[in-house]
Amino acid sequence: MVSASLLRAQIESALAPRVPVIFSTCTPTARPLQATGIAALDHLLGGGLPVGAVCEVFGPECSGRTSIALSLVAQVTRQGSACAWIDVADALDPESAAACGVDLPRLLWVRCAENAAAKPRARGKPWSRLDQALRAADLVLQAGGLGVVVFDMGAVSPEHALRVPLASWFRFRQAAERTQSTFLLLSQISCAKSCSAVQLRLNRAKTRHENHQVMSGLQFQAELVRDRNLSFTAGKKPATSLAAWGQPAAWASER
User: Fold this and answer.
1) Which pLDDT value is given to residue 24?
2) For residue 203, what is the domain's CATH number?
3) What is the C-alpha to C-alpha distance for residues 37 and 182, in angstroms, rounded to an integer?
């Protein structure tokens, strides 16, 4: 009786001249990293977020999602690359972005709005804006030439966020890999599932009280749920899956 291994070798030998790609082994390699500008977070990630991949940052409101995204975009725009911000709820504040170091002329801001021609009973539903955002993200990613594409649906309820088909995140993952753009997804819960290379879960920020001030700043904490890039890097994995950092209030830093 012919063994299974021998039979497989015979089949591969017969088909290899016609379909050589099928039997070739694809060796996974580590992706280049882009620093976020937050030292504690970059240390946890082994250097930063992977380029050409989908990265999820999720957590409740006031957990630091936007702060991480603005810090990352600031790093990339200072390097001379352009970025895009897909704003589902039209919540981005340009003045705050500029204060964080974002080079606004290098930022494409896609503001999703309600369709004025929509039926009155359909207006105000977040899915109409979310549909616009998904279409815009598809166009932006396919066009390429962007260092970071932020998909901000932090104001979208989990009920509506989970309605996004997994096929959409899979398509975004393929486009991000092809164009070497970092696709940063901001949400309240994890949505991209297996399509994301990195998942960071944030806890609600805590207020800091220093020098007898009522509020001197905020304290953030992130938990690394998944990082596929760490499996291929030469460095050691961090001893902990948590990272904590602080952000002083504007009035505290001025004193």
Assistant:
1) 53
2) 3.40.50.300
3) 15
159 three-state secondary structure: helix
Whether 31 shows a pLDDT value over 80: the answer reads yes
Number of domains comprising the chain = 1
**119's tokens:** 């039926």
pTM of the model: 0.80
Dihedral sign, Cα of residue 237, residue 238, residue 243, residue 247: negative
Would you place residue 55 in the very low, low, confident or very high pLDDT band (cuts 50, 70, 90)?
very high
Give a yes or no: residue 10 inside a domain. Answer: no
Most confident by average pLDDT, 52-56, 119-123, 225-229:
52-56
Q: Which two tokens stand for residue 106?
A: 């290098």
Q: What is the domain extent for residue 215?
A: 32-254
Q: What is the longest distance spanned by two Cα atoms in the chain?
A: 84
Residue 152 contacts residue 69 (beta carbons within 8 Å): yes
Does residue 3 lie within any of the structural domains?
Answer: no
